[in-house]
Design brief:
Layout (H helix, E strand, L loop, with lengths): L3 H11 L9 E3 L4 E4 L3 H9 L3 E7 L2 E6 L2 H16 L13 H14 L10 E2 L2 E3 L5 E3 L1
Antiparallel strand pairs: 1-2, 2-4, 3-4, 5-6, 6-7
């Protein structure tokens, strides 16, 4: 099970867009910038998943190492949860952690379907009907 703080960190990164979102993602530099939980970020910096670029009075900028693999596994987790399967498939995924984060993120956001109209996140989108589609 992924803790709420860890899920929130990575889901905020997966929801990152340009200006106007709490976490921004710069396509050119592949940097995520936002006000993240320092303890959680440091845990993943120490584990080698994230790389600190800058910490300016709480505004943290990080790069996700092996980002494409993470996003692919995250999307796979979203898809498995959407299909009603269990997390058993995480064991067969290239990045079981990212798979589990995506899986649990889907379960969390699908509890609030009305808030998801137009929702965009790496791995899935929500259309006007409230139905989630895997990207």
């Amino acid at each position: 099970m992924i803790s709420k703080k860890v899920r929130e960190l990575f889901s905020s990164m997966m929801e990152a867009q340009g200006e106007g979102t709490p976490v921004t993602y710069d396509v050119e530099t592949e940097q995520y910038t936002g006000y993240f939980n320092h303890t959680v970020v440091n845990k993943f910096i120490d584990a080698g998943l994230l790389e600190l670029v800058e910490n300016n009075d709480g505004l943290i900028c990080v790069i996700m190492n092996e980002r494409d693999d993470f996003i692919s596994s995250f999307a796979s987790g979203v898809n498995e949860a959407r299909l009603g399967r269990d997390q058993y498939y995480a064991d067969y995924n290239a990045n079981p952690f990212a798979f589990s984060v995506g899986y649990e993120h889907f379960l969390h956001v699908s509890k609030k379907p009305k808030l998801l109209v137009g929702y965009v996140c790496h791995g899935f989108i929500n259309d006007e009907t409230g139905e989630l589609h895997v990207q």
